[in-house]
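Risk mitigation, structural track. In case the binding assays with adenosine monophosphate fail to produce interpretable data, a predicted complex structure has been prepared as a fallback.
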Amino acid sequence: MISPFNNDDDHDDKPREECGVVGIYNDPEASRLCYLALHALQHRGQEGAGIVAATRDGVLNSVTGVGLVSEVFNESKLNQLPGSHAIGHVRYSTAGQSMLKNVQPFVADYMHGRVGVAHNGNLVNYERLRRELEENGSIFGTSSDTEVVLHLIAVSKKRPLIARIVEACEKLKGAYSMVFITEDKLVAVRDPYGFRPLVMGRRSNGAIVFASETCALDLIEATYEREVMPGEVLVVDKKDGVQSYCLSQHPEPKSCIFEHIYFSMPNSIVFGMSVYESRRMFGEILATEAGVDCDVVIPVPDSGVVAALGYAEKAGVPFQQGLIRSHYVGRTFIEPSQGIRDFGVKLKLAPVRAVLEGKRVVVVDDSIVRGTTALKIVRLLKEAGAIEVHMRIASPPIIASCYYGVDTPNSEELISNRMNVEEIREFIGCDSLAFLSFDSLKKMLGGNSGGFCYACFSGKYPVAPNGNVNKVVDFVDDGLNGSIQSIDGGWLQGSEDQGQDLNHEEDN
Ligand code: AMP
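Fallback model:
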């Protein structure tokens, strides 16, 4: 896992993605627990972090900042967040945008009080909603789609606040797992398709916790109770405890399968399934369906590790660490002026000659996006003495961009949208290449397979995007990739089947 999509910090082994949210109700240390939970969710966003906490007399205090959780918060910042309920957010964002004002949670005053919100996902009708609101006089302070939610709540005529939140959410299209905070309540909402995860847990003192992933519950010793169901609105307050409401749409859920392939931590339970178990199975399936004679199986750390373990076990071949990932590479690095080929990858992944020399190597990664990381990894392995390199990818080919909160480049940049498997193999220079087949993935999910969104593999979108959808990020090169055209063998240019039409799943 080398992220091609940002100015990667690599203080850790984790993927870079979208956002993470947390909410805590009725714990004297709510903001501290939020802070810890955000650490556990740091892999979901490294560009900014924030917490809003409500004091006993109903004041919402907020601390937000650009950077990692450890950079944004310290003892004195947390001391500014007293109160027994709080929400938090880690954000993955665009480098180019003015950053601080887009860091969540957002807080707003409306006629009857104050409300804060933290959102994971991406709204596909944001532009239209924003235009309508602006035509009616709303003034926006950020370029984030989340802000429309606050405006919709403010303009709603409904009472009480929960009815305003429900009315606002029913106007939203796309992906949203959100937590709201008010003077005396915590509210968790998941969109009717359940694109992004959101779970509920409870601490031994009775405090209720909402979080994007269960790894956040584990850290703060909250027991996982259940998912917030797609289309569910959970309201927590002192008077009524936890109450569940439903948004009016009831489509079949479409949870993001990429959470299992790449985003979520392997120690999380996501959509009711262990991420570790899914990835191990992906590896096993690859070994069964696309096995090849080899001496050693190695992962691309860290996102390929569990699938590689599954592959090695099934194939009965030793699992080795043929690539060592550096955990200490900073956000930016200065390259020598004469240039070193594949510098970014080399800085982060070091091949182990003792594992690779003279060996036929199977290397497992979670996905191929633009194909440039794989190309560099194959080159590294061969330079370190591997006599054969067989690449196995624990997901189907990604052919379409995501509109529901995943940072994928535009379809034209996705190598599997431009080339078939043999062409990709030739481009990345490996001896064989195989992807997890789409059918096998669905077969593995069994009876649950209808409940997932596969738009990135099929181009069939459960919710059609309206107009120009602001994706979660604009592509930011981290020096690992260079543009496809500038990579050796730039013969890729001008492939004919670029620019897929957006298919609406229901039309297909
Ligand atoms: P690429 O060089 O564009 O093919 O990138 C492939 C690598 O990007 C794989 O090693 C994945 O682990 C990683 N990856 C996949 N999806 C994402 C994502 N949404 N954000 C960041 N990195 C990703």
